[in-house]
């Protein structure tokens, strides 16, 4: 595929959608950070008109994905030292 294909906003938006669906199937905030990064790149390309090169887009995607993953981990993680315990069986 040509590098111009990856500078289309809808390709990144479709990747964000696929990653969001993967997050539903495999929970744990693994794919959600990547989905947020892909959605941000899609929005950036939509607003700017797509004049970015692929290496710069990949760098922006990696940085935003890492930032989103760290933010999600900080927001949704259990407080330090706590362990999730269950008092009852799901079958009761």
What structural class do helix, strand and pairing data support? mainly alpha
What is the count of structural domains? 1
Q: What's the Cα radius of gyration?
A: 17 Å
Taken as a percent bin, the fraction of beta residues is under 5%
Query: What number is the mean pLDDT?
Result: 85
What's the number of helices?
3
Helical residue percent band? 55-70%
**For the terminal residues, how far apart are their CA atoms?**
54 Å
Strand/helix succession: HHH
Low-confidence stretches: none
* DSSP strand count: 0
The largest sheet, given as strand count, sense and whether it forms a barrel, is:
none
The 3D shape can be described as elongated
Transmembrane segments: 6-22, 29-47, 53-72
Protein name: NfeD-like C-terminal domain-containing protein
Keywords: Membrane, Transmembrane, Transmembrane helix
Keywords for this entry:
63% helix; mainly alpha; 92 residues
Q: What would you note in describing this structure?
A:
This protein is mainly alpha-helical and 92 residues long. It has one domain (9-75). Helix content is 63%, strand content 0%. It has three helices and no strands. α1 (9-25) runs antiparallel to α2 and α2 (31-48) packs across α3. It is elongated.
List the helices and strands and how they pair.
Elements: H1 9-25, H2 31-48, H3 54-76
TL;DR?
The chain has 92 residues and is mainly alpha-helical. The chain is built from three helices and no strands. The chain crosses the membrane at residues 6-22, 29-47, 53-72.
């Amino acid at each position: 595929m040509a590098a111009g294909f990856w500078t289309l906003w809808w390709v990144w938006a479709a990747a964000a959608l696929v990653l969001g669906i993967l997050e539903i199937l495999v929970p744990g905030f693994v794919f959600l950070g990547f989905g947020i990064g892909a959605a941000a790149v899609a929005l950036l390309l939509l607003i700017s008109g797509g004049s970015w090169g692929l290496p710069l887009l990949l760098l922006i995607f990696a940085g935003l994905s890492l930032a989103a993953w760290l933010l999600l981990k900080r927001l949704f993680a259990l407080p330090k030292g706590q362990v999730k315990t269950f008092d009852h069986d799901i079958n009761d």
